[in-house]
Amino acid sequence: PKKQWSLQDFEIGKPLGKGKFGRVYLAREAKSKYIVALKVIFKEQIEKYKIQHQLKREMEIQTSLRHPNILRLYGWFHDSERIFLILEYAHGGELYKELRKRGFLSENKAATYILSLAQALAFCHEKDVIHRDIKPENLLLDHEGRLKIADFGWSVQSRAKRRTMCGTLDYLAPEMVENKAHDYAVDNWTLGILCYEFLYGVPPFEAESQTDTFRRIMNVDLSFPSTPCVSTEAKDLILRLLVKDSSKRLSLQKIMEHPWIVKNADPTSICNK
Ligand SMILES: CC[C@@H](NC(=O)c1cc2[nH]nc(NC(=O)c3ccc(N4CCN(C)CC4)cc3)c2s1)c1ccccc1
Description:
single chain, 5-stranded antiparallel β-sheet, 3-stranded antiparallel β-sheet, 10 helices, binds ligand 400
């Protein structure tokens, strides 16, 4: 029988982070002493922003997806004014903080993270799930430095529908910027954006204004700075992902087999499941 959790079962620790619709706290299950992350979302926020269905989808999806690079949702419960998600605790924190701290990542780390993402996304696409919001803020690291995709709030089951644009445009694929019906290939485009950002420290189409970022995405206005020095193979992978025609982007399978990935990804930090 499914255990019915309640707030009394947990000792709440320090706040870990906050998103648009809630906060996440370090927490410990009182009996087992098991450490988790407890995400708290206020019901009046859910009603106000009409995100009931989105939250329901996030919970269904994240509960059903079991993959080493996808943050686990163990369960949930609610009280009169809040909903609580019991999430896996990622000890290493947010990947983008590591990126900002170091400026840019080594080709080994970048390739390892891109391979982990490709494996997790291939797993999601098998289950007809498109995450659509893969950006450094949604990527966490566990105690072994293994990448975990968090926050499936924007993910959808199978055919993706319109979504309101919020946050940075940097990671949006052309078809999303143009608001055309898009499909799984948006995640492949985003892998190209992330690969560039891991290696250079900034997203490829960054610009002063949203309009300029918009234009640079639509024109795939891509250039590689001379520093830091990045291998030709890495640039080859980025060029095969940041392709406007979504049908011509490198598939997830081909990403996993790309020479730069095979040569640089650290086999111990990935899961060959
Ligand atoms: C991705 C955003 C999303 N976050 C989650 O769902 C989140 C789920 C989840 N599980 N574990 C986490 N870990 C941390 O947040 C964390 C942060 C810093 C840490 N360190 C600080 C530096 N120190 C040197 C090492 C330890 C360690 C763990 C988070 S965040 C979210 C969505 C909505 C509302 C709030 C948060």
